[in-house]
Amino acid sequence: MTMxxxxxxxxxxxxxxxSLGLSACKPAAPPTPVPAKPTEPPKAKRYTFALVTKSxxxxxxxxxxxxxxxxxxxxxxxxxxxxxxxxxxxxxxxRLVEDLIEKKVDxxxxxxxxxxxxxxxxxRVNKAGIPIALANTNATGGDVVTFSAIENYEAMTLIAEYxxxxxxxxxxxxxxxxxxxxQTAIDRKxxxxxxxxxxxxxxxxxxxxxxxxxxxxxxxxxNLLQTxxxxxxxxxxxxxxxxxxxxxxxxAGRLEGTLVSGFDANDDALxxxxxxxxVVTCDQQPGKQAGDAMLALIDYINGKTVPKRIVTPGxxxxxxxxxxxxxxxxx
Length: 331
What we know:
It is a single chain. By secondary structure, the chain is α/β, with parallel strands linked by helices. The chain has two domains: about 45-150 and about 285-310, Response regulator (Rossmann fold, 3-Layer(aba) Sandwich), CATH 3.40.50; about 150-285, Rossmann fold. The chain has ten helices and twelve strands. The protein has a six-stranded parallel sheet with strand order 2-1-3-4-5-11, sandwiched between helices. The protein has a four-stranded parallel sheet with strand order 7-6-8-9, sandwiched between helices. Strands 10-12 form a two-stranded antiparallel sheet. The N and C termini lie far apart (about 120 Å).
């Protein structure tokens, strides 16, 4: 190898070494960024509410249950529905509420059987820190989020005045009262008494409880028919008692010429109005009563201000307005 070739080789080696050194000094390429995993929003808590009504044998409470169920489905709420197996039994209703305290439900909508008798268990609900709202029937004590219901006194006043007009201001009448101790029964009876007291030509033959039940309404009416040969009208404090009275009147052949009023606008009563067997009833929107109470509980839990009283509108239903309810009448 010539001297010139050796120098050329040495130069090539030096250039390679320099190139490798410069490459080593270059900053490393930044790593390919890994996209961050998106943070999932926290899931909303699924609440468990309970609706406790007065009995299982009255379609009115079924309508109330449907209204509560609709609100529950729309608001991601699990709904427990309970009622005494023995209708309008305070002791059993109290036990049902106590069981809900043990279950630690998130809220309770209660329809008290007895407005005073239910207070101790409402106070136990308060002590447990569970928000409770009342629907349809008020209580005389305890701390409740709201009370959602029709104004029973005012609504029954309309029914009573309507019946007085149909009677022409005179006649012999029977009153079928609701469950003793219930705020709804007390208010409706008081309204009937106050209206009828203004008409001296209307004679109240008897005023008896049939405990808001159809079978008892029929039984009481059967007994009264034997006692009173002439009855011009029956003013019942709910539809179930009115329907029981109608059965008794029909069996005795005395429905024609006897006016019967109810209160609740359940499906059977609407059909009776349609057929002319009942003169008038009152739609007090039970589904709305329960639904509004549940919505109030939701707002309360979410820190919103809730009115202590939610008034549900009521509507008289007679032959002139029955067409609005034809979809609920099974012909």
